[in-house]
Structures are given as C-alpha cells and as structure tokens.
Automatic annotation (TrEMBL), chain A:
Keywords: Membrane, Oxidoreductase, Transmembrane, Transmembrane helix. Residues 133-425 form the NADH:quinone oxidoreductase/Mrp antiporter transmembrane domain. Its EC number is 1.6.5.11. The chain crosses the membrane at residues 6-23, 35-55, 83-103, 115-132, 138-157, 169-189, 215-238, 250-274, 280-301, 308-329, 335-357, 378-395, 415-434, 455-473. Its main location: membrane. It is found in: Endomembrane system; Membrane. One of its GO terms (molecular function) is ubiquinone binding. GO terms for biological process: ATP synthesis coupled electron transport; electron transport coupled proton transport. Belongs to the complex I subunit 4 family. InterPro entries: NADH_Q_OxRdtase_chainM/4, NADH_UbQ_OxRdtase, ND/Mrp_TM. This is NADH-quinone oxidoreductase subunit M.
TrEMBL record, chain B:
The gene is nuoN. This is NADH-quinone oxidoreductase subunit N. GO terms for biological process: ATP synthesis coupled electron transport. The keyword Transport applies. It is a multi-pass membrane protein. It comes from Jiangella aurantiaca. It is an enzyme of class 7 (translocase).
Length: 513, 508
C-alpha cells in the first residue's frame, strides 16, 4: 500500500488543532508557534502533492477510499484533480500566512489566542477535506461542520458588532446547508432507486436523473453554494462578517473558506445535474452579472475599508460564478484560476488593511490620508495588492479575469460586455481608496505611523510574489485545471462554441511574451 | 384445558425489573431510613444492569411470548436495551447529592406541605426520600413492556404502568414545589384523559376485529369489509393516546409545563425514555396491527408531523426558560421522527430506532448540564442567567453547546446522522414534501439553539450570575458519557446504524 498522502494532508492540521488546544492557557505564544508550525508542515505536504500534478513527477499520490458508513454506501474517498489541486494549493498557502498575520491581532484581545489558532487549523482540515472529497455525504458533512469553527472565530475575536455578524453568518449558511441536506438526501434516494445505494461521486454522476428531479436537487445545492460563495441576492452576510471579523480572519473566510461554494458549483453541481445546469445557466449568469456590478458599485460607496473589500469580493465571486455557468472550457478554466487568484489578492488586501487598522485603530477611510509619507513600504504593499484586485497585467488576476470574460463572450455576449464594466468600476474603487488613504496631505493622526515590520513583510511578501509569479508563469496551473475542466463540461453535454482563439494563446498573451 | 406456557427466559429482562421494583417497595417498608438510600441505589443499578445483560443475551430472538401478549423481537430488544442504558445514566443523576447541600433533587417527603414546618424539619435533618427508585423501576418496566406489547390489553397496561409512576415523580421537586406539584397534576389529568381516549379507541378496534392481538387484527383488516367507520374511529382514538405520550401537536400542551416543573433529572429521564417507549409502541401498533390501513392513517400522520415540527420550532423561539425551550425542542424532534414513521417500512423502523437512541442520549446529557448551573434559588433556568457561561466554565458550556448542536443536526454530531436517516427514510417512502417542511423547521430550530450558544460564549457574564456547581463523580461520568456518545455516533455511526438495521424486523 502506498503512502496515504491525501489523508495525511488532512490529518496534519487536524492533529495540529488538537495539540494547539492542549497548550496550557496563558502560553499564547507557544500555541501560536505550534499552530503556525503545523500550518507550515501542511504546506510542505501540499507542495509535494502539487509537484506531481504541476510538473508530472510521480510522487505516488493516488486516490484513497476507505469505508465510512457502510449502511449508506458513504466512504472516506479522496482524490485530486486539477480543480481541487488549485484550491488545495491555495488553502495550504493561505493558512500559515493568515496564522502569521493574526499573530498580533489576537494579542490585542483579552481572549486567549489559542482558540483562534486551533479553530483555524480545524477549518483548514475541513476545507481541505471538502476540496478532496469524492463522496457527497463527506463533502456535505465538512461543508456544514466548518460553519461552527468559523462562527466561533468571528464571534469571539473581532469588532464591536461581531456577535451580530457571527449569528448572521451562521444562520444564512445553515439555511443554505439545510436546503442542500434535503437535496443530498434526494440524490441518495435516486441512487437507492437505481439499485446501487451510494454517495460516491462518480456513481452519482453516472445516475440518469429525470429533469424535474434534477431541477429540485439543483436548487437545493445551488442555494447552499450561492449563499456560501456569496451570489447576489444571498450575499448580505458577507460585508458584515468581513467588517467585524479580524482582518486575517476575514481574509481566510472570503479568500479560502468561501471557495468551497464556487468549488461545489463546478465540481458537484455541473456534473451531477447537467440538464438543470444547462437550463438554469442563463438565470445564474444574470445573477452573476448583477453581483459583479452591484458589488463593485457598493464598494465604491463604502467608507469602511474592510466592508469595501467585502463588497469587492462579492463582485469577484460574480466573475467566478459567471465563468462557471458560461459553460465554455475557457471560462471554466478562467473561473477556477480566478478562485486561486482572488484568494491571494483578497488575503493580501485584507492583511494590509489589517496592518493599517491595527496602527490607526480605525477602519474608516476618512481617518487616513497621506500614509505613503510615513510608511512607504506599507503604502507600496497596499498599492500592489490593490492593483491585483483590479486585475492589472501581468498580475495573475488579470489572466483569470480575461479568460472568464472572453470565455463568456463566446456564449453570452451581453453578459460579457456588462461584466467588463465591473473591471472599470474596480479600477475606480481601488484607485480612489488608495488616493484617499495613501496620498494627499499627511493627517496628524497618521504622522509617525510605523512602516512594515519584519513579520508583516513575511506575511505580505509571499502573497505579492505569488501574484506576480503565477501571473507570469501560469501554464502548469492552467494546464492542470484545463485537464479537469474538460471532462466536467463534457458531462454537462453542452456544445463548445468555436473558440475565437485557443486558450494556450491567451496564456501566451497574458504573460506578455 | 392446558395451562398457558410462559417463556420465562425470554421475559427475564422484564421480570428482573418488576421483581426489583417490588423488592424496592419492601425495602421502603422494612429497612431503617438511614440505610435505604445506598441500598435502593445499589438495587436499582443492579437490576438495570442485570436486565441489560439479559437483553443483550437475547439479541437475535424473534418470538411472540406469553401467549401472544409480548413480542420479543429486534425493535423491542433494541428499545429495551436503549431504555436500560438511558435509565442507568438517569439513576446516576438521581443519586447526585453534592448539588443540594445534603440532599438530592427530590423533596425529602413528597407528602409534606410545601413551606410547612414539617418540610423545614425534614430538610434540616437532611432526610432523603428513596421512593423515587422503586417508582423509577416501575416506570422503566412499563417503558420496556410498552414497545414490546403485542396485544391491546398488554399495551394499555404497559402504558399505565409506565405513566403512573411518572406522574408521581414529576411532583417531587425539592425546590419550587408548588410548580412541581402543579406540573404533576396537569400531567396526571391530561394523561388520564388521553388514556381514556386510548381505551375507547381500543374498544372500537376490538369491536371491529373481535380480537386483541396485533397479528389477528392485521388479518381481520383483510377479512372484514364494510365496517370501516368503527375501525377508523378506533385507530384515530388510539393514535390520540399515543401522540399525547410522544408530545405531538396538537396533543403537546402538557410538555412545556411538565418539563419545567418536574425535578430536572426526572425531566431528562422522562424526555428521553418516554419518547423512546411511546414511539416504539406506536410504530409496532401502526406497522404490525394497522399496516394494511396505511393509506388511511398516513394522511393523518402527515398533518400531525407538519404541525408538530412547525409549532415546536416556532414556539421554542419565544421561550426564555431553558427547560421550556428544551421541551419545545423535544416537540419538534417528535415531528422529525414522525416524518420517518409515515414511510412505514423496515428502513423507517431502523431510522426511528437510531434517531431515538441518539436523541435520548443527547437529551439526558443536556438536562444533566441544566442541573449544574445554579444560583441561590436552585437551578438557574432563566436563559438570561446563562449569559457568559462560556467564559466562566468553558468546558461545561462547550459540552452543552455540543448537545445543542446535536439537536440542531449539525454534522459530526449524532443528531446529524439521526436527521439524515429519518429524512432519507421519509424521502424514500414518498414523503419528500415532509422533508422540505422538516428542513425549514430545522432552520428555525437552529436559530434558538444558536441563540443559547451566543449567550454562553459571546455575551459578557451577568454580575450576579449563577455558579456552576461541581458535581460528584456520578453526574460527571454521566455527562461525559453522553457527550462522548454524541460525538462518536456523529463520526462513526456505522455500528449503531447496523444494529438498528438488524433490529428493524417486527415479529408478527
């Protein structure tokens, strides 16, 4: 038997969470060190797994299946494909960065930081399980279970309104999750009726479900994912959570954990309910376009920096959903790639804003001004992160946004054209935010603001470097994603429109070569 | 005429419990007061454990014993075993003496007038009343017989043997005695009323079928044609009696008052075990005796299930007392079980068995936690007093949160697997709309469970808040077992699911 790489990848953070929780209270620093250590260890394992798929080196990683609940035909079934690989890579990268970023945010609170660090690792383990799971029940279990640690992370650490934000987060997502539960049961009963009771994804994909049933099941799954991801009009919990959670927690929430929603759409909804997905695609595309424009417009109008970034996320999630439901290979590859890039970019933005907030003690845009004088490195990092948010070439976000829009253009021209407006708006909210906070006369309260410290550089530098490196050298990742996206779309059975130009060429364009 | 044969070996679990209960009564009469408490606790635990061992040894049996009166089969043995396990943990909670200075949760003498000189003297002398234990044994015996009853008379006798001790136990609270006695009286009056209706229904069914045995009633359904009115009236009236016992809407109104007034360990015992026994009896009656009529009773159960889930979940939202909130939550859970019952097949039976077992464990644990949060007036059951509990005693609050999450059906707790099984059975049985209602009710219910968690963990502690009493080993072990089982059955439910599935075939 080969080494169970995937189970190890999940078991490590889970073990880390337990050990962190066992650190005696009062030894906050030790707890942080243990947690960060385990997050880094997970990163190493994640990197080893990625090598096999990105560079075709055989590391012996393979699908794992162990019996879990035999009565239901549910199993602990894990596998990696291009889509999950991208998101696993994002998760293992983001967790140590978030842990480092949280280092001081947690100490400001009177609470023991160990709970936060322990819960962070719990969420990492659950998120990784969701991305790797090949069993619908297992996916559902971790999808729902991760709400509880996230709920405590928002509710115990964060701003004055955190309780409200935490409850809103939990209830919105629970409602979606329960709708999904009904659909999961419906799906299982379909498999029972077909004579092979199973929760194993390939078995379920092979089922021939009639269109009416597909519609009901589709609604159940999509409701959960649309709340999680969040898609307009199910988005209202996100700005509150983003504003009230600590910046690094908000970064992890919208950068990593919410990706489970968009991942579910592309990896579960499309292959499981091809007919319903095809029929509903125009509706979802409209919702996605509304999200893009609505999120961007509201971001322009925000006075609270964290809320602002929350709304930009809604706009960006709109792009991701648009790319998924355009049902073209190009757009789907772009959407998956976008999930990774949006993760990196949002985490960078939240983290830098977190540095600003911790220095000034305020999240309001109006309390800042001229920061680039006393803290040039901080302002530079903010600029860089902001530019990745507005998808400037050659940063990686550009390529994904481009792929989504050009892929959508093949099928839904008006949607692609309106979505392009979102890019214009993103330039507006980012640059205007930069102008108001970083340039202009130095405000008295901002004078003497310290520049980035070593730990903070260690947090931001990898993010910014990755945004640049992946932007210039995206091919291994996009190839891996492309390979997985192809079969998914074949499953949906839509005719692929004639591409205006093959994906490979866009990649070349994106690199500027 | 031949003497009837009695299968003593197969009936041994029941005989053990009833025998021990009678011995308990004799102990009350002849043993000096000081010695009674240890002897009664020891005898009760011994009888329960012995009976449990006998039930386990009988596993796999499938016969009708005592001339057709008692079924010894999978569902009966599964429920008897579960009731015994829950009763053992309950008795551990009854025996707790560290929470009330020098006493337990029960009034020193149930007959003394509340607030009288007699009561004061008894409290001062630290008198313990031990009638509780034989009463509990009788109740447990009734509960074990109820789901095993295979004819109408035994069913009715089991119902009364189970209910009468419970009426008494409800009135025995040490604190807030008037509330407790009021609860007991309410429960007794409404319970007697429902028993009468149940008996009336039995008469109709007997009139139609000309027999008391379930199997023969089932045969009569196909033989006798043209007297459906009498039969349906009978089924309906019997359903009222059983739905009253499980606390289904519209026969639920006793639940909050009784749950609140009864001594909390008794509430936990009652909430967990009565529901188990009553659902067990109901499933047997409706599947075995009235199985041929299912198209007639399914619509009624549909309506009752929908009303029960919605009323339980919605009314729980407005509660400010933790025991009342748990009462309404138990009503909603009865509704969830009913969704599976509508499906009427063996997978539904397995789902119900599993659900009842996991729900019983979590309920017992939750009420035991309630006994520990105290202020000067006894248990601090008002929700406002629970604010900030997570800061003062994080472990206790986390345990309670675990039970609440299990009630809410969050994954990785036993409640999730339970909900999954009953809803799957319902969809499989063609009741998908019921599951949609169930999901909506679950979402509403999640709100009030979460509200308590918010209160415990995110609110600042009240300045004169309650203290968390340090329990003796009895309670601590009981709560730990409950929490461990709740978590374990959420992660690896396979073995218990398997057991429930094997036990889901009724002998006819």
């Amino acid at each position: 038997m080969t080494f169970p790489w995937l189970t190890t990848l999940i078991a490590l953070p889970a073990l880390g969470a337990v050990l962190t929780a066992l650190v005696p209270s009062g030894r906050g620093t030790l707890a942080k060190q243990v947690a960060t250590g385990f997050a880094l260890l997970t990163l190493v394992i994640g990197a080893l797994i990625s090598i096999q798929y990105l560079f075709d080196v055989d590391m012996g990683v393979e699908a794992e299946t162990y019996e879990w609940i035999a009565e239901f035909g549910a199993s602990w079934a894990l596998d990696v494909h291009g889509i999950s690989l991208a998101l696993v890579a994002l998760t293992v990268l983001a967790t140590p960065i978030v842990a480092l970023a949280m280092w001081h945010e947690a100490e400001d609170e009177k609470r023991d930081p160990k709970a936060f660090f322990s819960l962070l690792l719990v969420v990492e383990a659950l998120t990784l399980t969701a991305f790797l799971s090949q069993d619908v029940l297992l996916f559902y279990v971790v999808f729902e279970a991760m709400l509880i640690p996230l709920y405590f992370m928002i509710g115990m650490y964060g701003g004055p309104q955190r309780r409200y934000a935490a409850v809103k987060f939990l209830l919105y997502n629970l409602v979606g999750g329960l709708a999904m539960l009904a659909a999961v049961i419906g799906l299982y009963v379909e498999s029972v009726n077909s004579g092979n009771p199973s929760f194993f994804l390939p078995d379920l994909v092979a089922l021939d479900i009639d269109t009416t049933t597909q519609w009901w099941l589709f609604i159940g799954f999509m409701l959960a994912f649309a709340i999680k991801a969040p898609l307009w009009p199910f988005h209202t919990w996100l700005p509150d959570a983003a504003a009230e959670a600590t910046p690094s927690n908000a970064a992890f929430l919208s950068g990593v954990a919410d990706k489970v929603g968009t991942y579910g759409m592309i990896a579960l909804v499309l292959p499981l309910f091809p007919d319903a997905s095809r029929d509903a695609a125009p509706v979802i595309v409209v919702l996605a376009v509304v999200s893009i424009i609505y999120g961007a417009l509201l971001a322009v109008g925000q006075t609270d920096m964290k809320r602002l970034i929350g709304y930009t996320s809604i706009s960006h999630f709109g792009f991701i959903v648009l790319g998924i439901f355009a049902l073209t290979g190009e757009a789907a590859t772009g959407a998956t790639f976008y999930m990774v890039n949006h993760g990196l970019s949002t985490i960078a933005l939240f983290v830098v804003v977190g540095f600003l907030v911790s220095r000034r003690g305020s999240r309001q845009v109006e309390d800042f001004g001229g920061v680039q004088k006393p803290a040039p490195k901080l302002a530079g990092a903010f600029m860089f992160a902001g530019l990745s948010g507005l998808a400037l070439p050659p940063l990686s976000t550009f390529l994904s946004e481009f792929l989504v829009i050009s892929g959508t253009f093949l099928r839904y021209r008006p949607a692609a054209i309106i979505a392009t407006l979102g890019i214009v708006l993103s330039a507006l909210y980012i640059l205007w935010l930069y102008q108001r906070t970083m340039t202009g006369p130095v405000r008295p309260a901002v004078e003497g603001m310290p520049d980035l410290r070593t730990r903070e550089v260690a947090v931001v530098a990898p993010l910014l470097a990755l945004l640049l490196v992946v932007g210039v050298f995206p091919k291994p990742l996009t190839d891996a994603i492309d390979e997985a996206v192809g079969p998914t779309l074949v499953e949906v059975g839509v005719e692929q429109p004639e591409p205006l130009a093959p994906v490979a060429e866009h990649v070349e364009e994106g690199t500027g070569r | 005429m031949n003497a009837p044969t009695i299968e003593y070996a197969e009936l041994a679990p029941l005989i053990t419990i009833f025998g021990a209960a009678v011995i308990g009564v004799l102990i009350e009469a002849f043993v000096p007061r000081k010695l009674r408490h240890p002897i009664q606790v020891g005898l009760t635990l011994l009888a329960l454990v012995a009976s449990l061992v006998q039930v386990i040894l009988l596993a796999g049996t499938g016969i009708v014993a005592a001339v057709g009166a008692v079924a010894v089969d999978g569902p009966a043995l599964f429920l008897q075993g579960t009731i015994l396990v829950l009763a053992i943990i309950s008795v551990a909670f009854f025996a707790e003496r560290r929470l009330e200075a020098g006493g337990d949760a029960f009034a020193p003498a149930a007959s003394s007038l509340p607030g009288s000189e007699e009561e004061r003297v008894l409290v001062r002398e630290r008198m313990l009343q031990t009638e509780v234990y034989p009463l509990v044994l009788f109740a447990v015996g009734g509960m074990m017989l109820f789901p095993a009853s295979n004819d109408l008379l035994t069913l009715f006798i089991a119902l009364e043997v189970m209910s009468l001790p419970l009426y008494l136990l409800c009135g025995m609270a040490r604190r807030r005695r008037l509330l407790s006695q009021e609860a007991a009286l309410k429960y007794f009056l409404l319970g007697a009323f429902s028993s009468a209706i149940f008996l009336f229904g039995m008469a109709f069914v007997y009139g139609y079928a000309g027999t008391l045995r379930f199997g023969e009633i089932s045969e009569a359904l196909t033989a006798n044609i043209g007297q459906d009115g009498v039969l349906l009236a009978g089924v309906g009236l019997m359903a009222v009696g059983l739905l009253f016992k499980v606390g289904a809407v519209p026969f639920h109104s006793w639940t909050p008052d009784v749950y609140q007034g009864a001594p909390t360990p008794i509430t936990g015992f009652m909430a967990a075990c009565t529901k188990l026994a009553a659902f067990g009896a109901m499933v047997r009656l409706f599947y075995v005796a009235f199985g041929g009529l299912r198209t007639d009773w399914q619509p009624m159960l549909w309506a009752v299930a929908i009303a029960t889930m919605l009323v339980g979940a919605v009314v729980a939202l407005t509660q400010t007392d933790i025991k009342r909130m748990l009462a309404y939550s138990s009503i909603a859970h009865a509704g969830f079980v009913l969704t599976a019952m509508v499906a009427a097949d063996s997978s539904a039976t397995a789902a119900i068995l599993f659900y009842l077992a996991t729900y019983g464990i979590a309920t017992l644990g939750a009420f035991a936690v309630v006994t520990l949060v105290r202020d000067s007036g006894g248990e601090a059951t008002h929700l406002a007093k629970w604010a900030g509990l997570g800061r003062r005693s994080p472990i206790l609050a986390a345990t309670f949160a675990l039970f609440l999450l299990a009630f809410a059906g969050i994954p990785l707790t036993s409640g999730f697997v339970g909900k999954l099984t009953v809803f799957t059975a319902a969809v499989d049985g063609g009741a998908a709309p019921l599951v949609v209602v169930g999901v909506i009710a679950s979402a509403v219910a999640a709100f009030f469970y979460v509200r308590v968690i918010v209160l415990m963990f995110f609110s600042d502690p009240a300045p004169e808040g309650p203290t968390v009493a340090v329990p003796s080993l009895w309670t601590a072990v009981g709560i730990t077992l409950g929490a461990a089982a709740t978590l374990l059955l959420g992660i690896v439910p396979g073995p218990l699911l398997d057991l429930a599935q094997q036990a889901s075939i009724f002998v006819r």
